[in-house]
Amino acid sequence: MAFQNPEADAFHWLVDMLESVEVGLVVLDLDFRVQAWNGFMENHSGITASQIRDQVLFNAFPDIPKAWLTRKVDAVAMLNTRAFTSWEQRPYLFQFRNTRPITGTEEFMFQNLTISPLTNTNGEVNKVCLLIYDVTEFASSKRALERANEKLAKLSMTDRLTGLLNRGTWENLVDAEFERYRRYGQATSLVMFDIDHFKPVNDTYGHLAGDEVIRHTAQITRSSVRQSDSAGRYGGEEFGIILPETDAENARIICERIRDAIEKSIVTTSTGDEIQYTVSMGIAQLSGEPENYMQWMQKADEALYQAKETGRNRVVVGK
């Protein structure tokens, strides 16, 4: 059967499509008064088209960034060209609740936004059309992937048992600090230390108890150093600390604080055993003598060896 009024039918289909499409459509005049508001916007805002028609958008949605959107719309109207904003630049324009069950971990709907100019019969821009795309599922997946990658990156840099920097990462920082000293000449110190008589701890209480002692050492170290310092687990029961902008005497004060805290503490294991232990520490303030960071580490290690040889549970500053 032939159509009686093709133009009316086409208009009806167009209106029906705009009402049912899963994209938000808002038409504004240049005073930001709402001229069109489709079903997507009604469903997610709870405001019908008849309720919001001719209202200023910012009055109905005070959370919308007025200055930002005004700049965007003014540029679109003046240049007669589209503008696009992704959720990564601005998570959303309208603060709609996320209603997708698959991506229920996100509180609000992430949105991409396109602003298009609309012209009158004279070719002048007198309105703009906002298209709001729900990209929550994609954004949520990307954010989850980024968080997972950040976690993997962190795990690759840290020691699993203690949470301190692992040996490779820590040594790289020692190298970087050595180069910084060569460039700027500021005082900097390196500390190497380990747990005294650690093997008897493992032999007497078991390796799980030994792990608890290592974790306890790391916790005290972390709580005793400054934010600018870098502590790492060098291997087994041995640890290292980089102390930037710190001379040997101030490094000794920091190390004495760690040594004293460990000596006075008791580790209660999961089996109820109580373990008291000590650490020995060696300090090397960097000078012009070492030719590379490995020689600097060697000097700190020699000071540690001297602390062991002279009775343990002490801090020795290398010469």
Write a brief structural summary.
It catalyses: 2 GTP = 3',3'-c-di-GMP + 2 diphosphate. This protein is an alpha+beta fold and 319 residues long.
What would you note in describing this structure?
By secondary structure, this protein is an alpha+beta fold. The protein has two domains: 6-151, 2-Layer Sandwich (Beta-Lactamase); 156-317, Alpha-Beta Plaits (2-Layer Sandwich). It is 45% helix and 21% strand. The strands form three sheets. The chain has a five-stranded antiparallel sheet with strand order 2-1-5-4-3. Strand 7 (230-235) and strand 8 (238-244) form a beta hairpin. The protein is elongated, with a radius of gyration of 33 Å. The chain starts with 5 loop residues before the first helix and ends with a strand. Its cofactor is Mg(2+). GO terms for molecular function: diguanylate cyclase activity; kinase activity. This is diguanylate cyclase. Its EC number is 2.7.7.65.
Rg is 33 Å
**Largest sheet: spatial strand order:** 2-1-5-4-3
CATH level 4 superfamily of the largest domain:
Reverse transcriptase/Diguanylate cyclase domain
Molecular shape: elongated
Order of helices and strands: HEEHHHHEEEHHEHHEEHEEEHE
Poorly predicted runs are none
Structural class: alpha+beta
CATH fold topology of the largest domain: Alpha-Beta Plaits
Helix content: 40-55%
CATH architecture of the largest domain: 2-Layer Sandwich
Classify the beta-strand content into a percent band. 15-25%
Query: How many helices in DSSP terms?
Result: 11
Q: Care to count the β-strands?
A: 12
In total, the number of domains comes to 2
Provide the CATH top-level class of the largest domain: Alpha Beta
How far apart the termini lie comes to 103 Å
Main pleated-sheet profile: 5 strands, antiparallel
What's the overall average pLDDT, rounded? Answer: 89
